[in-house]
Amino acid sequence: MSLVEFKNVYKQYKMGEVTINAVDGISFNIEEGEFAVVVGSSGAGKTTVLNILGGMDSATKGEVLVADRDVSKLSDRELIDYRRFDIGFVFQFYNLIPNLTARENIELATQISKNPLDPDTALESVGLSERVNNFPAQLSGGEQQRVSIARALAKRPKLLLCDEPTGALDYNTGRAILKLLQDTCRKEKMTVVLITHNQAITPMADRVIRMKSGKVVENRINENPMNVEDIEW
Amino acid sequence: MKAALFKNTFREIKNTKARFISILMIVALGVGFFVGVKATSPSMKQMAVDYYDESNLMDFRLVSTAGFDEDDIKAVKETDGVLHVMPSYFLDVAVSSKDAGSTIRLMSSPVPYKDNKAISQAIVVEGRMPDKSGEIAVESSGFSTYQLGDKITISHNVGDTDISSSLDTFEYTVVGKVKSPMYISLERGTTTVGNGKIDEFAYISESDFYIERYTVLYATLDTGAEKVSPFDSRYDELVKTTTENLEQTADLRVEVFTGENIDKAQKEIDDGYKELNKKKAEVKKELEDAETELKNGENEYYSGISSAQAQIDTAQAQISSGREELDAQWDEYNAYVATFEEELSNGKAQLEEAQAQFDEAYAPVEKLKSTKASIENEVVRVASGTINGVINFLPKDADPVVAQTLSDYASSVTYSNAESVLSEAKAYMASLYYGFYNLTFDGAITAVRILEASISQIDKQIASAEEQFAPAREELENGYAELAQKEQEGLDNLELFKSELEKAEGELSSAIAQLESSKAQLSIAKTDGLNEISDGKKEIEEGKKKADKEFKEAEKKLIDAQKELDEVAEVKWFVFDRDDNPGYSGFVDNTNRVDAVASVFPMFFLLVAMLVCLTTMTRLVEEKRTEIGTLKALGYSNRSITFKFVAYACLAALLGCVLGCVSCVPTLPRVIYNAYSMLYNMSDTIDIVVDKTSLYIAIVAAFACCALVTLFVCYKSLRHKPASLMRPKAPKAGKRILLERITPLWKHFNFSSKVTWRNLFRYKSRLFMTVVGIAGCTALMLTAFGLYDSINDVAYLQFDELCKYNTIIVADKEKKADDMKDLTDAVEADKRFKDSALVSQKAVSVSHKNNSVTSDVYLMVAHDPEDLQKLITLRTRVEGKGLTLSDKGVILTEKLADKLDVSVGDEVVIGENGDKAEVTGITENYVYNYVYMSERAYTDMCSKKPRYSMIYAYADSLDSDTEKALGTDYLKREDTSAITFTTTIINDFEDMIGSMNIVVLVMIISAGALAIVVLYNLTNINLAERNREIATIKVLGFNYKETSNFVYRENIILTLFGIAIGLVLGIFLWSFVVKTVEVDTVMFGKQIHTLSYVYAFALTGAFALLVNFIMYFRIKAINMVESLKSIE
């Protein structure tokens, strides 16, 4: 049974008389423990898919099954709980609370979770045990993104969703982050969904979902995913 | 300026309506409130100026101890600075009809004098002014209870002064109700009569005054061509110079008056003294003459008495000798009587012996005689026995007449007729029964004849015996006759002698009686004479006394006249200006008070407006960072870019100013004036006069703070290069706060608290602004509620806690305590009253010993301090310690002590005579100012006993029925002139202060508006700034409540903090406002009730909650996807 299953999902925006299909009837599935990469150019609808999957947005039509639950049918309140307990987010711009230290940013997430990781453990797992008391402004972009990942992981989510996590980072830092994500996926058996416009990353994924103009044009399983260290772009 | 920028500006406004409106509103509030309240004072002043102009209010009031005549008026008129003059009369009188006892100041209806304008014209509210005798116009204020057509009777006496010759008529009909520019407030001033207080004023026609010289002279100030406001310092200068001129005129006129009148009067008094001395000498001589005459009379009297006594003594001697002589004769008479009686008894004894010898010899004869008598009896017995026997033997059928007839015969039988009767009876019976009884009768007749024969025998024997005894019998009879004759003669002689003696005795006793009467006469004459003498003496004594008294009176009259003259000789003119009018200066003070309040309150609003503007514009500019960068990159000058934001801010400021002015300026002054108009009787409406300076200040301040703040914010951004502007601004870095250094404490905080605390210090300007805004709002609310408490406490504390009496009984006049006894006893006996106290209430002025500040107060003297203290609580306000009226010193009310700046132990000067007294206590009191003292202390101070006129009393369960009953009961009494109940006073007072509540309401509303605008704006900005954060935590799965709390917790802390500061600030603001708006006669409550703190807290809290509630939906509506999409 797949952990995630999209069945003929549409997301439509009405602009006056014109209806724009941001997501145009897509269907795909992601198995538990997979590192899935959704790839496509700007406006291909990949962020929308991630938002729908993350319970931040809802589909206009179709079924979005996550662990056999139709997320698209959930109420606002149920969506909150879904985000709270099932989903971990990593954003392009980290979205750390500037006024909280690294540990506190993680605590922010763990205090509302059912069975969270210890914030210090989470930070250690991303290699930032020495920066626990630093504020985001005192951290580099890569470090901030690590904190952001630690925050997401600390919740012990079913699903880790990453929206262009390297978009604002330089090459090496980006690689380090990707490595962290891949390691996490492998070590913790965490299902990771990562969206990116960078084709070069796809070799590291277990599954590659390619999107174009709101449609899934390819959904293939990478038989031999490469380690990040081995990929160059 | 390019068209595109304009468009951009307007579009900006459209997009950020809420922000624009919050700037606009706060500016409107600040400017409106400031300009509105600031316009109040000038509007009120203008109203006053118009009112004074309309009625041509006097600028000077001249009063002279000797009155004014035509020459005086002329002199005043010609004084430099005087424009018009108007002589007039006034007289303070007491009412004797309805409202008896109240003191009215009667003034003559203002009429133009010669070619002058009428001054201080009354303004007719209803009816008309009096224009003929007997008409009166009363004041239209609440003081007067008269209606048109009512009759008012004026008492002929005011206190001890007789005014019956000062008025033409004492009966008046109310023809109008008026107000006077001279009495704009509720004060009516003081007087020297009655209880010292004028209750109301009234106008009567000038002709009703019967006073020789004018009593008052009004004058107006000549300001030349310029128009000078009486609130100008120029006016004060002119008044000062003219007052000096008038005082010079006064000196001149006084000199003339002295020359004309005083010297003449002095001569009259001197003549009087001469006359008096002459008269004294005359009377002395007269009295001396009378005394000599009396002496002569006395001598005469004593000689008369002694001669009369001598005569009486002679008579007394004569009487005693007469008595002796008479007694001797009485002895002689008695001797005679004895002799005579002895002779007579001897004669009688001889005769009796002869009689006895004769009787012995005569005894046989007597025996014969008795035999004869017994035979004769036998005859009768035989005859009647025979007849009775026949009766017994009559036949049984015999006629009863027969028996009767026979019985008659039987009873008629005597010795001499016995034979004939028997014969007749025999004949009678024979005629009836044919001689059946003849035999019986014949037997009887025979027996009778035998007996008769024996009798004739005896008769012969007796006759011969008698012949033998006849000479002896004759001799004896002669002896008897001789003795009787002798006795008669003797008795006659004695009778004669006795009667002579008795006659002499009568003469003697009449002589004695005469003597007695002359004695009595003498003694009467004696006392009469003495009485006459002492009467005479007394008469002379009285004459002396009377003369003395008369002389003394005459002398006193002369002395009085001299005194009066001396007083008049110091004729004095007093020149008063408007400040002397009751309430006149108070009005100015009051308008200035409003101004003072006006200056403080809007400071808050302006400060808050600045802060609101600052934060809003900062946010706006920051949001438009990229746009600024783009514009800059496109080549727009800094000035053009700045212009957009400045225009935005200025437009908000402009609209705010307009809105504020339009909404507040026409309303606020009216609302405030309405509140004050309860205290003044002037025009009903005011025209708004905007204080231009404050208008400019407000507008400039509004624009300056908006524009400058915007410029400042823009400048901060424009410093940067376009490139860096187009990059997102790094979010404000997190920082450790001081609190974290205190590790143990910080550790104990839970996560949310940590976040909250850190956030609090992250945005300092917002923290500052929130606290200031909330604190301002709370302070205003607390001030408003505190003011409400202060005002309402006055009535409660004064009339419930302090003054327990609810009834005042006013006596017909001021009397000594003993003379009030009738009334006090009646009140004490009255079961309806629980307590009562006799007091003397007098309006006096009081001042500190070494201080020029004086205050008009009531001097209350308690006959029995204990009684009074049952009805009036004397206690210190702060400690609530009870005070006692002792035999020494006075107790002042708090406000008075404050004003005079005296404390316990200081000395105050009371009344015109400059009596001094030590202050022994300062008591809590809210309405009017009083000086309390005991009778003893008063007596010691003035060296005279106080005179009483009032009884304060407390009646249990006093309802309107009881009031009516008490009213009728006590007004019936001769010695009661009025009875009043504090219920009416309380009602009046509550009406008066109730108007202040409008001001309170205005404050609460504006404070609420302030709170909402500030909080809304702040939260709004807070949300905008933290949009991304909120979206993030929403994504993390925080539910709505948790998300809101994340934002609200700090709001709540700031609000609580602001409220706490506000409550403290409010206490200061409140005490300032209370001090500023207080009037002289009222002390506001000095405490804010706990409930008011609660209200201020709760209301501010409620506004904060309301804003948070609105914001809750905004938080809910934040779109995670949009907010996190990218950084613009």
Question: What would CATH call the class of chain A?
Answer: Alpha Beta
The CATH H-level homologous superfamily of chain A = P-loop containing nucleotide triphosphate hydrolases
Distance between the termini of chain A: 34 Å
Low-confidence stretches of chain B: none
Biggest interface goes to:
A-B, 35 and 31 residues
Low-confidence parts of chain A: none
**Shape estimate of chain B:** elongated
Judged by helices, strands and strand pairing, the structural class of chain A is: alpha/beta
Largest sheet data of chain A: 6 strands, mixed
What does this structure look like?
The complex is a heterodimer of chains A (233) and B (1128). Chain A has 233 residues and is an alpha/beta fold. Chain A has helices at residues 46-53, 76-86, 102-110, 119-125, 141-154, 171-188, and strands at 4-15, 18-30, 35-39, 61-66, 69-70, 87-90, 159-163, 191-196, 207-212, 215-221. In chain A, strands 6-7-8-3-9-10 form a six-stranded mixed sheet. In chain A, strands 2-1-4-5 form a four-stranded antiparallel sheet. In chain A, helix 6 (171-188) links the parallel strand 7 and strand 8. In chain A, helix 3 (102-110) packs across helix 4. The longest helix of chain A has 18 residues, at 171-188. The model of chain A has no long low-confidence stretch (mean pLDDT 85). Chain B has 1128 residues and is α+β, with helices and mostly antiparallel strands. Chain B contains 28 helices and 22 strands. In chain B, helix 17 packs antiparallel against helix 23 (982-994), helix 17 packs antiparallel against helix 24 (996-1025) and helix 24 (996-1025) runs parallel beside helix 27 (1090-1117). The longest helix of chain B has 160 residues, at 233-392. At the A-B interface, helix 2 and helix 3 of A face helix 16, helix 25 and helix 28 of B.
Helix/strand layout:
The complex is a heterodimer of chains A (233) and B (1128).
Chain A: E1 4-15, E2 18-30, E3 35-39, H1 46-53, E4 61-66, E5 69-70, H2 76-86, E6 87-90, H3 102-110, H4 119-125, H5 141-154, E7 159-163, H6 171-188, E8 191-196, E9 207-212, E10 215-221
Parallel strand pairs in A: 3-8, 3-9, 6-7, 7-8
Antiparallel strand pairs in A: 1-2, 1-4, 4-5, 9-10
Helix pairs in contact in A: 3-4, 3-5, 4-5, 5-6
Chain B: H1 3-15, H2 17-55, E1 60-68, H3 70-77, E2 82-88, E3 90-94, E4 103-108, E5 123-127, E6 135-139, E7 151-153, E8 157-158, E9 161-162, E10 171-179, E11 200-204, E12 214-221, H4 233-392, H5 400-411, H6 418-433, H7 438-569, E13 573-577, H8 584-623, H9 625-634, H10 638-664, H11 668-677, H12 692-718, H13 722-726, H14 738-741, H15 743-748, H16 751-762, H17 764-802, E14 807-815, H18 821-829, E15 833-848, E16 854-862, H19 865-871, E17 890-893, H20 894-900, E18 907-910, E19 915-923, E20 930-934, H21 935-942, E21 948-955, H22 960-971, E22 976-981, H23 982-994, H24 996-1025, H25 1027-1035, H26 1040-1077, H27 1090-1117, H28 1120-1125
Parallel strand pairs in B: 4-11, 6-10, 16-20, 17-19
Antiparallel strand pairs in B: 1-12, 1-13, 2-12, 3-4, 5-10, 6-11, 7-10, 8-9, 14-21, 14-22, 15-16, 15-18, 15-21, 17-20, 18-19
Helix pairs in contact in B: 1-10, 2-8, 2-10, 2-11, 2-12, 2-24, 3-4, 4-5, 4-6, 4-7, 5-6, 6-7, 8-12, 8-17, 8-24, 10-12, 11-24, 16-26, 17-23, 17-24, 17-26, 17-27, 24-27, 26-27
